[in-house]
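User: I'm writing a tutorial on reading structure tokens. Could you give me a worked example: one chain, its sequence, then its tokens, then a sentence or two explaining what the tokens reveal?
Assistant: Sure. Here is the example chain.
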Amino acid sequence: MNHSPFNRSRTVDRILVVDDTPDNCLLIQAILQDEGYQVELADSGKEALRLIEQSPPDLVLLDVMMPGMDGYEVTRRIRANISLPFMPILLTTAYDQPSVAQGLDTGADDFIRKPVHFDELLARVRALLRLKHSVDERDQIARQREDFVSRLTHDLRTPLVAADRMLNLMSQGALGDLSSDVQDAISTMIRSNANLLTMVNTLLEVYRYEAGRKTLVFSPVDLGELAQEVVKELSPLAIDKHLTLKLELNENDNFNAKGDRLELYRVMTNLVGNAIKFTDEGSVSVRLTKVDTGLVPAIKLEVQDTGPGISESDRENLFESFVPGKHKRSGSGLGLHLTRRIVEAHNGRINVSTEFGKGSTFTVYLPTH
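And here are its predicted structure tokens:
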């Protein structure tokens, strides 16, 4: 009978025992099966990896000293395979082997000395299976949350889009002439609805990245042309605030990068739009230059403003999701988080330099190939 409290309403836990000594394998198998566990055996590291790839177990009980491929190498390969679910690894080592630390550093979760004491073996197995179940439950909750948010945002978009179309039809007089007061009210409603729709769309994109469901279409992108497009589209916002919005680049330089044009457009729009939003006087500058980062040639995008700057407390979590700043115009905290995810998906990086009260500069590095 399995004494583990985590096996109620669960399938039987599967344990893979890996040892090149048949007597050891059979003895441990008998002990574990008597406790109600399902046990599979492997007599080599190569065979163990084949079985794990074929059907990942809940726990791996792994001998360190084996010919051909030792337990350390098996552990390293298991942890290097990101497609595998989490499975605890319990190493078995002889008393004269001093390199337990090496196994733990490689990715094992625990170890037990040979000759094995059965009560200790069962206690460690139960402890590691509790860890396994806890991780699995956490991951399941995270997936359910992501699915819920994804469905919710999809459901929210439908009435918001419908409301946007209806409000615009009313504003255009499709349902009759409107008084100036009603027209102003509808204009306010249109702006509020558009802001809410933008927030819902951003939330949906964030969760697509978080859940690994975002598909990027990479192709050659002229970042100079893209920057000109973004500056032109956002110029009316800058004009309304009496700000100077300028683009600085050497037109003779080639600013071609490989990426998803729509997502890179989103990055530029977020950064330039934020700069305009938080700047009340002065200017917003967008600069493109070619740089050598020491690894690969890159294109450097800078968005500099003369706004209030960012406080040290806000700077610490600036690119985290759902962490809005303390500025009165701060939004949901999703925009910069999404921007960082997009940049990282393009093998780039983003950082910010700021002086409180004097402005900020967001810098993005994107590889040219």
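What the tokens reveal: Residues 219-367 form a domain with the Heat Shock Protein 90 fold (CATH 3.30.565.10). Residues 298 and 367 are 4 Å apart (CA to CA).
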